[in-house]
């Protein structure tokens, strides 16, 4: 549950065989209201790029949506949260909150604030969404976001191509189980901790992390 907001998240091994629902959640006070099955949420926790655009216009014109209490109660581990800036996140964000970034916003942060973005992703989960301008369902390059430690990069599965090949290939090192440990330099702040974690238990078996070097590895893809 979300009762202890600052606890470490469970390990992938702890979550084997479980389904995780990540969504917005009704406030705790709503559960105390009698005979109410639905509550209202706003769209102010959508991806970072959308928030920036709305803040320049009129944040008072937020869209309200209904959310069933029964569904809200299923959100026990990860819930959506709005991203403001790195300083605010380091001071206030909780371990169970996931911030979403549009493709453009993620690239901008990865370029101008790469070190802070890496440190952010050592502590929190982030999700990248393809740009809304990709009306042809083309795909972004997921490596651009893996390089700064982003854990979830959304892809347009319906469109095959080199970037989907990169995406699928990334998980072949662990049998396509859907989870691969990030390089140690993207998980730890000091070399001693990174060295101690160079061998990790992945998917129930001991394996040497193929990406355990402390030297950044960047994949360049020619257009």
UniProtKB/TrEMBL annotation:
Annotated PI-PLC Y-box domain residues: 71-187
Q: Which domain of life is it from?
A: Eukaryota
- An annotated Gene Ontology molecular function: phosphatidylinositol-4,5-bisphosphate phospholipase C activity
* Keyword set, alphabetical order: Hydrolase, Lipid degradation, Lipid metabolism
Catalytic reaction(s) noted:
a 1,2-diacyl-sn-glycero-3-phospho-(1D-myo-inositol-4,5-bisphosphate) + H2O = 1D-myo-inositol 1,4,5-trisphosphate + a 1,2-diacyl-sn-glycerol + H(+)
The enzyme's E.C. designation: 3.1.4.11
The protein's enzyme class: hydrolase
Please give the SMART domains that the UniProt record associates with this protein.
PLCYc (SM00149)
Give the UniProt record's GO annotations in the biological process aspect: gamma-aminobutyric acid signaling pathway; lipid catabolic process; phosphatidylinositol metabolic process; phosphatidylinositol-mediated signaling; regulation of synaptic transmission, GABAergic; release of sequestered calcium ion into cytosol
The answer to keyword Transcription applying to this record is: no
Q: What is this protein called?
A: Phosphoinositide phospholipase C
